[in-house]
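We were asked to recover a plausible sequence for a given structure. The inputs and outputs are reproduced exactly as logged, with field labels preserved.

PROBLEM: sequence recovery
POSITIONS: 477
GIVEN STRUCTURE:
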């Protein structure tokens, strides 16, 4: 039974205190009815005895304490889920904003889902092709993995997020043969393409960025397989906290009820953490590191750990959270705690961006801890692991030699050292840089790696099996 209360005692910013409540629970949804009949939604943040603290989804202007009444709905924030969500655009509260009809929900789900039971997890072991060489070739994304992207203010992480959302796919068959279309043909025409979906959550973005994502997906046709949630920077903080949970709830339905492979992309997690800090400060909680609440780690884990593969389920959820590091500081609480929970990180470089390299992925500090589980014969190609290790080593050596050259001069380097320096330059220009519209198959990425390795003497290719060198290294005229 829904009860109405006229016992609102205090309003402080977005928070409101209600006395003499009964049976109210944490996260429960409520409605405030004003004297003129308008209704505003709120959510319970704290219950202490018969006193509840609620947060408004909208501002508190115009609320008369004596004449307003509040009712609690008996359930937390929910999302109506259906297969018809694909191709639709929603706001941060799960309401359609694309001009289309309301979703006819198959069911309503609590957005505060649970982290996946570790005993029910299936190990990630299948390759996801993003079409971006620095990810596919060197920091491979595996189905069921959590792989964040660490960016900085002003770097093109939004364009990179859109590119991954447009291009990502699960391959139906391995790229095991050395043919031009072995990697890409099955995914374009087979079940893998139709069984793959993207859930994109844009958190705390500007209106211009929101329009960019919508238009970009529509321009390329990717909108048909995408569920897009957009939360704007001027929306309430509590909505910003709800948006990624809306996205994960939709992803769980598509993955584990519709047996789809779902890629969830969230940008920007920093805006989410800032909203958490704002709500925590309004509740007058004791702040933790840099003013963020002490439960930031636990809160982020409740998001990230909802991704993965489940035993007995065909579908999967792969998660790419994107965050901007304040002052490019990797030790900031948000990237620091994210790194503890997830399986690696892709780091964007301001130095490469200034050189005009796009996407400016800093290869050496980037890492995918599960890359070995998604590469090799039957998944990508037999030579993948060896070429990956050789490219890493050659690029690291080339960068060291370039630094030596700038200090000691070119004459101080041996002919082989100069080749390594040349390799580093070509690697950045041709392998790392590929623009926002180039979609490389894993076959093309591996072949490009071999082309670059041909700059070096064969005797320097010590991390690749000789039979693979004979098979794949381009023959010099």
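RECOVERED SEQUENCE:
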């Amino acid at each position: 039974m829904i009860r109405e209360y006229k016992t609102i005692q205090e309003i402080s910013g977005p928070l409101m205190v209600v006395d003499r409540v009964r049976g109210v629970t944490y996260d429960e949804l409520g409605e405030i009815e004003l004297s003129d009949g308008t209704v505003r939604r709120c959510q319970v943040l704290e219950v202490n005895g018969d006193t509840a603290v609620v947060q408004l989804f909208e501002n508190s202007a115009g609320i008369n304490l004596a004449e307003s009444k509040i009712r609690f709905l008996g359930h937390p924030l929910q999302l109506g889920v259906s297969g018809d969500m694909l191709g639709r655009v929603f706001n941060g509260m799960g309401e359609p904003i694309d001009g289309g009809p309301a979703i006819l929900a198959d069911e309503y789900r609590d957005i505060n889902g649970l982290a996946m039971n570790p005993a029910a997890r299936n190990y990630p072991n299948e390759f996801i092709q993003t079409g971006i060489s620095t990810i596919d070739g060197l920091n491979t994304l595996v189905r069921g993995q959590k792989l964040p992207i660490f960016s900085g203010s002003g770097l093109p992480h939004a364009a990179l997020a859109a590119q991954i959302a447009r291009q990502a796919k699960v391959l139906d068959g391995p790229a095991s043969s050395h043919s031009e279309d072995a990697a890409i043909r099955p995914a374009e025409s087979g079940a893998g393409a139709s069984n793959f979906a993207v859930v994109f959550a844009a958190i705390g973005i500007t209106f211009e960025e929101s329009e960019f994502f919508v238009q970009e997906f529509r321009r390329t046709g990717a909108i048909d397989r995408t569920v897009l949630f957009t939360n704007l920077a001027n929306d309430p903080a509590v909505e910003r906290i709800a948006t990624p949970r809306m996205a994960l709830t939709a992803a769980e339905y598509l993955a584990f009820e519709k047996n789809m492979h779902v890629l969830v992309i969230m940008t920007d997690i920093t805006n989410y953490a800032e909203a958490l800090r704002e709500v925590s400060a309004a509740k007058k909680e004791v702040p933790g590191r840099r003013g963020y609440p002490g439960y930031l780690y636990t809160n982020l884990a409740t998001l990230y750990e909802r991704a993965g593969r489940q035993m007995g389920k065909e579908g999967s959820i792969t998660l790419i959270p994107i965050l901007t590091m304040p002052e490019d500081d990797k030790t900031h609480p948000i990237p620091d705690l994210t790194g503890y929970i997830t399986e690696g990180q892709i780091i964007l470089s301001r130095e490469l961006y200034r050189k005009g390299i796009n996407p400016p992925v800093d290869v050496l500090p980037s890492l995918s801890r599960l890359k070995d589980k998604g590469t090799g014969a039957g998944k990508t190609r037999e030579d993948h692991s060896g070429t990956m290790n050789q490219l890493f080593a050659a690029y690291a050596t080339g960068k060291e030699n370039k630094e030596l050259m700038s200090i000691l001069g070119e004459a101080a380097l041996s002919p082989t050292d100069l080749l390594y320096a040349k390799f580093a330059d070509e690697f950045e220009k041709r392998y790392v840089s590929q623009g926002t519209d180039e979609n490389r198959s894993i076959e093309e990425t591996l072949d490009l790696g071999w082309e670059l390795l041909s700059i070096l003497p064969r005797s320097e290719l010590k991390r690749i099996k000789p039979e693979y060198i004979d098979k794949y290294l381009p023959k010099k005229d």
